[in-house]
Write a structure and sequence with these properties.
224 residues; mainly alpha
């Protein structure tokens, strides 16, 4: 008969994290659609997608609460509970930012400055590429748990963490380019539009920032 304690030792301490990541990604995937509708000057489409994004964020928020509630007070794995809670928060924050983008784009009609259009498209692509890597990283949790957060599973996870940092840096550079293009257009757009676009760019960048922060939590997992 197998030792029941051994079964606990190979069980993931974060049973809801993969499910949470899926819900967060469904929410975040609305962002490229929002930007596409904005560029098409389809304000009704923007409003519809913003509402869908908020609904998906609510679903992700519910899963976040379940993940926190199900996290044992004491883990039988080399993972600090505070680090696990921080990972859950960083994943959830991506959906929060996606919802914020939708809300900002519905507060007043916005046009994409011509000088920023190409850079904005590429910026959004780079942000979503960062989320691709963060999703791959979450998929390593089960192999990591089974390997005791060491060995080749840890090596694979750390490689993804490094890739995540690289992709976030690329997104960060695109955000800077968009900001420069935005401010070079300030004579042709209103101060309010300039302010709103600054907030939108920051929220898009924060999506990638929170994804990179997930990588920092994985570093803590495998460093113990």
């Amino acid at each position: 008969m197998r030792n029941p304690l051994a079964r606990l030792l190979v069980k993931s301490p974060l049973p809801r994290v993969a499910e949470l990541m899926g819900a967060v990604r469904a929410c975040a995937d609305k962002v490229p659609e929002l930007i596409e509708r904005l560029q098409a000057e389809d304000q009704a489409g923007v409003a519809r997608l913003a509402k869908e994004t908020s609904i998906l964020e609510g679903a992700a928020d519910a899963l976040k609460n379940e993940a926190r509630a199900e996290l044992p007070a004491r883990l039988l794995l080399p993972v600090d509970r505070r680090d696990a809670l921080k990972l859950i928060s960083e994943i959830d924050a991506i959906a929060d930012c996606a919802e914020d983008v939708g809300v900002l784009l519905t507060l007043r009609p916005l046009s994409v400055p011509a000088r920023m259009k190409d850079g904005l498209d590429e910026f959004v692509r780079r942000v979503m590429a960062t989320l691709d890597t963060s999703e791959q990283l979450v998929a390593t949790l089960e192999p990591l748990a089974k390997a005791g957060f060491g060995g080749s599973a840890a090596t694979d996870a750390l490689a993804l963490v490094q890739e995540l940092g690289r992709r976030e840096h690329e997104a960060d550079k695109l955000q800077d380019q968009c900001a420069k293009a935005l401010f070079s257009s300030e004579e042709s757009i209103s101060p309010v539009a300039l302010f709103m676009w600054t907030k939108v760019l920051n929220k898009l960048g924060d999506m990638a920032n929170h994804a990179e922060n997930m990588g920092d939590q994985f570093r803590l997992f495998v460093a113990r």
